[in-house]
Amino acid sequence: MTRHRSTATQTERLRKYRPDIQGLRAVAIMMVVSMHVGILDIHGGVDVSFVLSGFLIGSQLLAEIDKTGKVSLSKFWARRMRRLAPGMAVVILATAALAWVYGSPLRFRDYMEDGLASALSVMNWRLVETGTDYFANDGTQSPYQHFWSLGIEEQFYVAAPIVLFVTAWLSRALFRNRVLVGLFLTAVVGGSLYLSIQQTASNQPLAYFGTHTRIWELAFGILLALGAPLLSRMNHGLAAFMSWAGLAIAIGTALLITPETPLPGYAVAGPVLGASMIIAGGCAAPRLGAEWLLNNPVFNSVANVSYGWYLWHWPVLILWPDFTGHELSYSDRFRVASLSLILAYAMYYMVEARFRNNAQLVARPWKGIFAGGTAVAGTAAAAAFAMTALPLNLSTTAVAADGEVGYSGPDSVQKSVLQTKLSNVAQSALPKSPEDKTHYGCIDNTDVTEFVMRDNCVIGDPEGKTSIVVIGDSHAWQWGDAFHEIGQKLNARIITMAKGGCSPEVYSIKNPELNREYSECDSWRESAFKELEKVKPDVIVVTNRVRREAREAGAEKAFQVFEDTGAKLVYLTDSPQPGRNVPDCLATHTDDISACNPAQDQAIEYPEYREMEQQVAKRHGAEIIDTLPAFCASNVCPTVIADQIVYYDSSHITAGYAKSLIPYLQPTLKEALAG
C-alpha cells in the first residue's frame, strides 16, 4: 500500500493538461491533411497520432489504477463513445449521401461495404483483405479508406484497459512495482515492430493496415506514460533539448519519407521517435522547450477539431472531382483542406462538444455507452440498407443505338470521337462493364515466382497442330477472349503466359503493391523462357504495358530468347491508358461521355519506350500489330466505340471490345502461322 500511495503521489504531480501535446496533435493532423491533399509531401502524421493516443490513454488508465486500484471499464468506454461515435456517424452517413448523389453509381455498393466496415471499426482489416495500395492514385480509393487508422485505435481502446489492468495487478502482486508492465509493453513494442518490418517486405497491405503491425506505436506511448513520473524529474536543460530535437526528428524524417518508401517498416520509426522525445521532454515542463512553439491559440484551436478534420478531409478529397466535374488542381487542394476544416469546426460545436460535455452522459456512463452504441448500430444499419436495398443513382437518359457494336473499322472510331451521349445498348451494359473481363487464359498473381503450365493456360483449339504463345503481363491476358476465338478459327493452340505487372522484357521493375523491386517477376520470367524451349511454338505474340523502367538492352535480351526458339514473332503494341476508371466516369457523365475520353498524347504512356520496343522487335524479325488506330482517332481515344465500352477499369480493355478486334488481329496471326 505504501508503494501504491507513493506512485499515486508521483502521478498527481504530473501535469493534467499538456499544451505541448495539444500543439503536437495539431501538427500531426496538419501533416496528414497536407500529405493527403497533395500540398506537402510529408508522411508520418498518423504515426505521431498513434504515439499521442497511446500516451494519453495510458496516462489516464495508469492514473486511475494508482488512485483506485482498478479501472472502470464503463467510464472508460463511455468516454471513448462520447468522443468518437457521434462524429463518426455524421461523417459516414453524410459521405454515403454525397457518394450516392455525386459519386459513381457503379462503386456505391463497394463504398457502403466500406462504410459498414468503418462503423464497425474493422476498416483496416477490410483493406488488408482487398490488398489496397494506400498510395494508389488511380481513382479506386474509397471515401472511407482513412477509417483504417481509427479502426486500429478503436480496437486498441477495447483491449487496452483490460490488458493494462491485468498486467498492472499481476505486477503489483508479484513484484510490488510495475516492472512486469514495463517488460510486457517492451515485448509488445519489439514484437510488433519486428512483424511490421518483416511483413512490409512480404505483404505490404497487411503491414500497413494490420493492427498487429501498428500496435507498437500505441504501446510505445503507454511505455512513455509509465515512465512519466521519472521523466518529470529530468534536468530542464536536457528536457528542453530533447523536445526540440524530437520536433526536428519528427518533421525531418517525415519529409524524407516518399510514396516509394516501404511503409511502415523502419521508416515510421523516425516520426514515432521524434514524437516520443517531444512528449518525454515535456514531462519535465521545461520553460524553453518545444512547448514554447507548440503552445499557441492557432494550434490549440486546430487540435480541438483535429478528429473532425481527419474524418472530413478524405471524403471531400475523394469526391471533389465528382463535385466539380474536373480533376483536382493545385488550388483545389487548398479548397479541399479549407472546406474540410470548416466542416470540422461546424461538427465540433454542433455535434462533438454536445455529446462530450453532456452532463447526463458524463454522470451515467451506461447512458454514454448506450448513446454511442446506438449511433454505431444505426450507422451500420443505414450502410447495410444502402448496400443492399437502395437503388443506384443511374441516369435514364440515353440515345438509340445503331449499327454494329464494337470496332468495325477506322470509321467506327472516328464516329465515336463525336459521340456525346451513351446509347441504350451501352447504358444497359454499363453496370456489368467492370466485370467484362476475359474468360480465357491464365495469369499469375504477384507472389508467384515460377510459371507452371496449367489446363486453363491452353485455350483456342487444344488439339490444334500449330501453337501460338501469348506472353506478357495483364495487358497480354486482357486479350484472352479474342485469342481464344482466333485459335478456334485457325485450329491453333493458344498458350497464355502472363503475370500481373511483369514485363517479358529483361529489366528490373519496382512493384507499387510490394513497394520494392519485383524479384518475383525476374524468377517467373526466367522460368517462362525455359518453358518456351519445351513448347517450341510456331508463333510468339509479345505484348505488355510499357513501363518507365524499360531499357533497350532488356528488350534485346528478351527478343533474342524469342528469336532463338525459331518461332515467328509478332509484337502487339500496348493499348492506350485512359487514366481514370472508365465505367465510373461514364456512369457520372452519361450526357457528356466525351469528358471521359483522354487525348491520345495523354493516353499513350512513355511513347519513346513504346517506339524503342517496336524497333527492337523489328530487328528480330517481328511483325508489328499497331493497335493505336483501333483505339484512337483525331488525337482522341474514345472510351465507348460503336456502343461498346472499351475499358473495364482505368487500364484494361473489356472482353467485349477485345473480341470486336478479332478481324483486326487475325490476318497477321494467320500469315505468321502460314510462314
The SS-based structural class is: mainly alpha
Poorly predicted regions: 1-6
Query: Helix count, per DSSP?
Result: 29
- Whole-number count of domains: 2
- Compute the separation of the termini in Å: 95 Å
> Beta-strand percentage?
5-15%
Mean pLDDT: 92
Radius of gyration: 29 Å
What is the makeup of the main sheet? Answer: 6 strands, mixed
* Helical content (DSSP H or I, runs of 4+): 55-70%
Task: Work out the number of β strands.
Answer: 10
Overall outline: elongated
Strand arrangement in the largest pleated sheet: 1-3-2-6-7-8
Describe the protein in words.
This protein has 675 residues and is mostly helical. The protein folds into 2 domains: 2-388, no CATH class; 432-575 and 600-623 and 649-674, 3-Layer(aba) Sandwich (Rossmann fold). Helix content is 61%, strand content 6%. The protein contains 29 helices and 10 strands. The protein has helices spanning 2-13, 19-37, 45-68, 73-102, 108-119, 123-130, 147-175, 179-202, 204-209, 211-231, 236-256, 269-282, 291-294, 297-304, 306-324, 330-356, 359-363, 365-388, 410-417, 424-429, 474-477, 480-490, 519-535, 552-564, 582-588, 600-603, 607-619, 655-660, 662-674; strands spanning 458-460, 466-472, 492-498, 510-511, 516-517, 539-543, 568-572, 623-625, 640-641, 644-645. The strands form 3 sheets. A 6-stranded mixed β-sheet has the order 1-3-2-6-7-8, sandwiched between helices. A two-stranded antiparallel ribbon has the order 4-5. Helix 3 (45-68) packs across helix 10 (211-231), helix 6 packs across helix 7 and helix 7 packs across helix 10. The longest helix is centred in the N-terminal third of the chain and has 30 residues, at 73-102. It is elongated, with a radius of gyration of 29 Å. It starts with a helix and ends with a helix.
